[in-house]
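Re: the 358-residue chain
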Amino acid sequence: MRALIAAGGNARRLRPITYTINKHLIPLANKPMIYYAIDHIVAAGIRDIYVNVNPGEKEIQQYLGDGSRWGARITYIEQTGGPKGVAHIIKNAEHYLRGEPFLFHLGDNIVLGDLNRFVERFQRENLDALFAFSRVRDPQRFGVPVIENGKLVRIEEKPIAPKTDLAQTGIYFYNDTVFDAVANIQPSGRGEYEIADANTYLIQAGHNVGWEEITGWWKDTGKPEDLLEGNQLLLNEVLDKEVYNYGMIGPDVVIQGKVQIGKNTTVWENVLIRGPVSIGENVTIKNSYIGPYTSIGSNCVIENTEIEHSVVMDYAEVRAGTRIVDSIIGKNTIITSAKNSLPLGHKLIIGDNSQVEI
């Protein structure tokens, strides 16, 4: 079995962060989110991986390389013709995937637990397709299955009145029949080839289609609040498996709960860290409180600040003199206190699509 990971798109709902970083490389629990997809794919025994990327993409290749760090082989496929929907990603990869069953995994979907039972069922029952569904609070954002008398009859894309609270997750197993499906659907009203339509085609054409509900946790990281929730749940999972401290800790520092601290990080002068928290390498933290569900990237400076339930990316300098919560702070960001300069007041340089609370 092979795997296809979707790692293209524009991620407009996550701007301005995604103006300068591919969404799939945004760090959650201090690891690019696409790494979690690859971890699960390899753990399921799949080593031949194809990654769909935007035309001209270079950054993802730098992060993932040839896949050898996972003991896998990664091949990159540029998306041709612009963003035309999730089903078009499969159509674009047909040349590479025909002849072998494959797992299609959206690179911005986070799943806790393994995929082995899906692989085993797909193979054991000789299915043409297998879909993973999850219960969500807002199914109108997703493809929603219609199930009648226990039988899956179709998938409705972003319905105004969902018939269930189940959502189609970004995990699909297919054989070659899916290429007939993507070749026979038409663009939706928003001009995209919808994966829900391709899946409905397979169902209504009488193919052997199965479905299963994810019993653990699944998250589509489409909005800032989704990223923060994903970071929270991944910190719980990651720090349950591994907690370490490679930093230099001062005598007046208090560390409570599960906390990771990277190499050459200095924590000193009146600091309280309350886990779960992940802190990268070469970080300086002074006179601050780092609260639960916070991840701080490498080469950051945190001084005179309280920060909680937030993601801080590499090379950020935060000297806010106040409390920061529920925030995503991008690379090379500088946050300082308004009290440090005259005249007093909030001085802002804000780019397009930013969100600020004062």
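The mean pLDDT is 86.
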